[in-house]
Amino acid sequence: MKRIDSHRAAVAAAGAVAMLAVAGCSGSDGGDAEQGATGAEGQTLDVWIMQGTNPSADEFFDGVATAFTEQTGAELNVEFVEWGDAHDRFVTSIAGGTTPDVAETGTTWTPEFADAGALAPLGDYVSDAGLDGDLVEGLVDAGTYDGDLYGMPWYAGVRSLVYNTEIFEQAGVEPPTTWDELEQAARTIKQELPDSIAVAVPGDAEFTVYPWIWGSGGQIASQDGETWTSELDSPASQEGLEFWTGLAEDGLSSAGATTWRETDVLDAFAAGDVGMAVMGSWTPGAIVEANADMEGKFAAVPIPGQDGGIAPSVLGGSHLSMFSTAENQDLAFAFIEMMTTGEFATQWGEQAGYFPGQTSLLEETLDSTDPLVAPFAQQFVEGGASVPVSPDFGAVQAKATTSTMMQSILSGNADVATASSSAAEEMTNLLNGGS
Questions:
Q1: pLDDT tens for residues 404-414?
Q2: How confident is the model at residue 38 (pLDDT cuts 50, 70, 90)?
Q3: Which residues contact 345 (CB under 8 A, 6 or more apart)?
Q4: Within the chain, what is the greatest distance between any pair of CA atoms?
């Protein structure tokens, strides 16, 4: 295999590996994915995979390459690409017609590349493979553009509410199932343990904001025909923002958290100073790695909806996409199916610390009683969601529209109504191709 000697900091997910190790290998076994690709002897499939997600990627793809050749007769050429360079490389290769046959695409990139006409639709292949209904809905939503599926769900993580069990026991509170319970638990923690941060409300962590907007019935943005309109300033969205930022305004967070990113939340939680925080399914191992004394002292629950249930949370991960330049699309999908279902999907998840995109692979995980297994899996399957599936949402992220809104509220420079109105105006402009 050809590869680039580039490096991206590996996802801190050692603990989450154990979380996925219990996932079964139901569904297809990763060995039946021919899809009309037989007779491909002498052909080569060119694939781009992002560098760093799986520390065992070299060995993993050696095994995949062997199985792929045995099943199809074709050779597999995998090139590892650094995440930081990947978007520009994709744009350049799309413009020059030099795209690979298959590539890992971040969930927010898939609609952008589909809009550019660079990707081939996968819906018919998925149906023919009998995979309809067995793919994680949030990842399917993120990979669907203009009515067609362009990104096959591969792996993802999700954020839930992680809490310090020692702090909860000392304060005499239970994991919350509603917003009222969450607020009351935070107030009790602050009263009983005044030096602690009852709940971390970070200002520069976009994906920790959206669950509260969705949880109150709001939306990030909606589409009518070709036109997008941000709904960050809708009454429902503002209600969610009022709740989340109000926890900080009441002194239940930390003034320093106004500029915190998710890595800062992790550091504070690992130090044992935080009662609860929205954190990713890939973070348990990083928490213990940062502070071994935290092992066994924290657990998770799905993010509660306003009056109960589960508030949706962003699924962050990757698709496998087939590029329209692929000469043998049957061969390309044979690889995609091999990677995203059965034993190879399970193995990748175990090694990388993420959930596979095939629902049937999560069944045993959902039955687990481990406090750092089932809650994330339940959030993933029942409460996973996608940001607006727009080719221009990347521009929103580059502009840091949501974080700017949060920081202006948390710093006291603007109230929720003013800040969300400004953010909605900017987001609407960006989603409709503005700058």
A1: 999 999 999 99
A2: low
A3: 30, 154, 155, 339, 356, 357, 358, 361
A4: 70
